[in-house]
Structure formats: structure tokens, C-alpha cells
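To assess whether ligand presence alters the predicted conformation, the chain was also submitted together with S-adenosyl-L-homocysteine. Input:
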Amino acid sequence: MQPDAISRPIVRLRPKAEARAIRHGFPWVYSDELVLDRRSKALEPGTLAVLEDSERREMGLVTVNPNSRITARMLDRDPGARIDIGWFKARLSHALALRERLYDQPFYRLVHAEADGLPGVIIDRFGDVAVIQPNAAWAEGLLPALVEALVAVTGVTSVVKNGSGRARALEGLAEETLLLRGGLDGPVRVPMNGALYMADLMGGQKTGLYFDQRDNHAFAARLAGQGRVLDVFSHVGGFALAALAAGASQALAVDGSEPALALAEQGAAAMGVGARFETRQADAFEAMEALGADGARFDLVVCDPPAFAPHRKALEAGLRAYERIAKLAAPLVAPGGYLVLCSCSHAADLAQFRASSTRGIGRGQRQAQLIQTGFAGPDHPMLPQLAESGYLKALTYRLDG
Ligand code: SAH
């Protein structure tokens, strides 16, 4: 990986490439839009380069990965920008200002990749601790400057590098999770929607907690009222603990991960609602079948599975799995109760996911109203040019009485 030198290689658009979209803010250049000669093909993933149009006019500073279909990503519209601590500080301050406006406590996604001007970089903040996922080669190389700037801008005392994302392999990066700064003393307590969640920042999934569901947790918790809740694919209790905090009488959390459920129980205990909370470690499909066979009914059922269609090839199988979930979940909803079905699949768009879910509810012999469609919260901004970043969908149905 090259240091940020000022003399930079040049990558050039092909004559027919759509320079206009890039000029108007589209952040990516695909491999078939670039002149990929021997020299550009030999660039190491993460190299910073100047992007030129086919008439050799400079368009900006990009990071290049010749092995990726998205071969260049725009870093700065100024082709001469220096990517140093000051540059990172500016990007991070801009990101922080939005989150400070939105939340009164420092628990949120601080950086959501492209939309926050840092392609491929995710940073979640848990009070004094930040977790960075540098899922792009350019950021891996410049990590020391990024961490320095992060500490200066936010005042966090501990920084974790979480290198477990699927995206890293595509960038030729190794898997590793380690503490870059400070220390960590067990799981971190995260207050959100009146609940307390336990986030394991070193060993947990994603970066320890799903901040993207915050608003959907809150909406579902309102609907649960004082009823009984079934939270399937609960992780550390996202929906269940929010509902208990809002007054639900009982919640059952189902997940395949024993460590996630143990953290959910710790969260419930810390909130003082342990007596109203139960967990069941099981395959979600089997657990729903078993609950159905027992005739169990809940006033709110939530299913928030992992991405069943993370990429296009998995789309058909993924949509079938979403339909099956809806079919198994619908009969578990008490008359007049609510069903929340979520998808975090990039490849399944809203219309496809909604069609599969609705069909599944019908096959589960229930009629429904669709009362709300939720998305990731505003600490997960989207670049409007990238529809792909709108990955999370949460459909709330009210079922027949
Ligand atoms: N609802 C959570 C996030 C869920 S993430 C929240 O709001 O915070 C998806 C969860 O599904 C993970 O915790 C994972 O352990 C679990 N999971 C994945 N496959 C599963 C399966 N087949 N059965 C049960 N749980 C599964």
C-alpha cells in the first residue's frame, strides 16, 4: 500500500464512459468504464490515484482496486487533496455533527461508508469506545491516521478494529479483530429506547449491536403495548428488550447463538425485567414450527433474520426463505396482533421482499394490513445515487382479528 504521496498514478475513463454521472456525484467507476492498461492493472488495491475523463481533464482523487468490479471510488473531488489526519478530521467532524443532532447519548453509527465520505469504512460508537470496520484496502493502509483523527474528534479512549466483514475478502484483506487503543472490560452497556443492551465489541457479530434497527425497535415496542412478544432472530434482544422497556408483559427471544442470548439475558437483568424475559436457543425455523404446533400466540411477532439474499445469486433462494418465515410466523400472531418482518438483504429490493412476505402471510392463512415500512435509522445515511445502500427493510403488518 502506498503512503499518501502527492505524485499519483492516473486512471482514465474510456471515451464512451458516462463521465456525467460521476461529475454529478455518482461515487463509483466500474471496471468496464476505465482504460485498464497493464500499468493500472498492476496498481495495488487501495492505491490513491487521480481520475481523469477521456479528454484528460482531472475529475478527482480516487482509490483504486483493479481486482474489484467497482474499480475506482471517489475520495475527494479535489484531485490534489492530501489524505492525512486533517482530512480525516474534517470528514469525521461532519459525520459527528449529524449524530450529535440526532441523539443525546453517544451510541450510534458514526460513519456509514460512502454516504459519510469514507468509502468502505464503518465506524460504530459505543460511548468511549469506537469500533472501526475498514472494509476497503485504502482505509486499511491509512488506518493510523484515521484512528488518530477519530480519537481527536470524538474523544473516545478505546478503539477496536473489527476485520470480520464479508467485504474484506473482496479487497484482499485478512480477517482480524483487535484492540488498537485503550482497553475493554467485558461487554459495553448500550442505552437505547429505554432498554439496556450488552454489546460484545470484540467477539460479537457485526460491531456488537444493530444500531440500524433503533427506530424499528421503537415502533414495534409501541405496538406491543402490554402484550406478549416473540422476538425471532433476536441477537442480544433488540426488539424484545425495547418492548419490555415500553411495558410488554412477556418476551421470548429466539436465536441460534448462545452467546447472543446470554448477553440478552444480562441486558434484561440490568434493566430489572429478567422475570418477564425468556430465551430459547434454537434454529428459528424449527422453533417457529414447534411454537405453532403448541398453539402459542403472541401479540407481537418480529422476525429479523440475517441477509438471506446478500448478493444476486442468492436472490431466489433468499426470497423463498423470507416467504417461509412469513408463513411460519403469521399463525403465531394473536387475532388483531402485529407482525414485523425484516430483511437486510442488498439483493432483495423492497418490492420483492414485500411480495414474498405478503405471500407467506397468505399461505399462513392470515389476512393483513400493511401499516408501516421502516428502514435503517438516520445514523445510516444513504448516498442518494446508491440505491444499494438502502439495504434494511422492516414491514409491519396488522393481522386479522
Ligand atoms: N433482531 C436483532 C438483530 C438480528 S441479527 C436486533 O434487532 O438487534 C440476526 C440474528 O439471527 C443473529 O443473532 C444470528 O445469530 C441469528 N441467526 C442466524 N441464523 C439463524 C437461525 N437459522 N436460527 C436462529 N437464529 C439465527
